[in-house]
Request: fold
Amino acid sequence: MVPTAKSRRWEPRRLSAVAVELPDGVAPKGTPGRILLAGLRLFAELGFHGTSIRDLGGAAGINSATLYAHFPSKEHILAELVLLGHEEMLRRLRRAVVGSSADPVDRLRALVAAHVSVHTDFPLLALVANAELHALSAERAAPALALRTEAQELALGVVQHGVDAGVFHVPDVWLATAAISAMGVRVASWFGAGQPYDREQVVETYAEFATRIVGADGPGKEQT
Reply:
């Protein structure tokens, strides 16, 4: 049962209550994997600049010298997490577009479902990949930024396809795409245990919101 506006009570989740995990098969085994998971938790809770090498070593159960044997710097740990987050995102978006029909609405809904699901399935990774990207140097950020650009172009193409087909009606394709993307990104900041919505409800509802943003029912038509 979906809560009404009157009964809905905001319960901001604690990061520590969310599972600290990475997508299957992407984390290295052993100590490097423990370091990445430690970084994921600490960067999400404290931010990159609020986390020290000593913090990372303690969370991973190793000393600083051992940590440096696996990662040259704290920035390298963040860069790896940011890249993993962007790789998972692009992988899901590509799969969604390839697996959808040519119908513009179906394609958009599939794209949005894939985008939102990353933020429900791996909220800490999504949070770090987006919120801490700025802490990386240009060199370390470049691989993730290239993937982000590709993901943006993919999303822009989906919206433009709908406009060209006469199904979507937006004053600006880029702004509409940016609004849809921003809406999904925020899911990672609140979704988790204790919220009254499950994954499927969030994914389906956000897909519906996206169709409204692009005016899929026609320009100026009242939405119901």
In short: The two ends are 20 Å apart (CA to CA). Residues 6-14, 218-224 have pLDDT under 50 and may be disordered.
